[in-house]
């Protein structure tokens, strides 16, 4: 029997020697399906509002608050989960945050009070931040460098699946005449809808526990033996051979832990896992991101995220309500032309609460999701040729123009067409931005950078939804103009983002 040769190679070379097969497909299924569930969790509330407004006696400002406060949860959660993932690892943070996202959504489905419902959805947003911020970094750190960008871009397809699945489930469940009611408890079809969106998220969170820690993270934190074990496991899964047959026996890459630079023999001391060390590490990571090497890209990413996500999540969350208003207007005044602002003014004059949602509302939202499929396929096929900066700028400028045109629509069909273009291209820009972010920062601060950008993005979503909810019934021209301006500003700012620059080397922390 021939003796197996022993190689000492750097991490990227060792990762490429594990092959590409069963393990990577399972990982993509987990994180892709998780991404779809995150999309469902983030958009499900927009379908609940038209149905639950009578149960909770919601006004437009209440609806804006319900759309906005989960963003507050994401703001608080982004930095928390990002810092924790860079200290405790990707796997457990991802799996626990995903499971808790589903659990809190499930609990919100039985809430009988608006205040409790808002609190649970805010906590749900807090946990979403962990799963959302880790999806791309965790996936990227298992991918060979030559295909990493394309694999990350396929996540847009999974996001689209989630956007399509939500209206399908809502259309199937919410119109059902199911209602259990007494003086203490009300349970209707929209509650069942939330159960159906939360259950898959919990299942995927539990499944994620069976996956290994990111080998790149283990290398960066000095755990070279554990990283080799993970690479051997990946090799075994991909090839069907024994893990002991993996030809790489030693990693030659010298890595410095972000947790503690004074580590002997590449081992991490258990005391470094303490709360005190976690807080210290959090401060160090933030300090690195705002030092001269990273300052420009950190500020730009945060500003672009604020503007882009303020526009995207505000309109996306209000689509079902706007469609519902259009359908109600066209039912009352058939064949009469109208604009978004005229529809809203008529809505304000109505006093009666009507929880019934026209089936056309669900169909319109489904069409918007289907409109994202061509752009989702276009991104991974062309990102290498055209570059991520092109995608972001082109998509955002087109979306800004479409948003400005919404003020001039005269019927629901024109509104639907513009909404389809907006959703397809704005969501593409968001995913491309976060795919590019993976290459802008080194492993040891990558999830922190992602969390920070998500934090600013959700600040934008928070303020956008609050302003939109307040002004839609007062002067809807202002929020539409506001969203269009935010998009144009984010496109202009992207010109200065060094997306094509090589990732700067990880620096030691003294």
Automatic annotation (TrEMBL):
Residues 27-502 form the Major facilitator superfamily (MFS) profile domain. GO terms for molecular function: transmembrane transporter activity. This is Major facilitator superfamily (MFS) profile domain-containing protein. Its main location: membrane. Keywords: Membrane, Transmembrane, Transmembrane helix, Transport. PROSITE patterns: MFS. It is found in: Membrane. The chain crosses the membrane at residues 27-52, 64-85, 92-110, 116-136, 157-178, 184-208, 298-319, 361-383, 390-409, 415-437, 449-472, 478-499. The keyword Cell membrane does not apply.
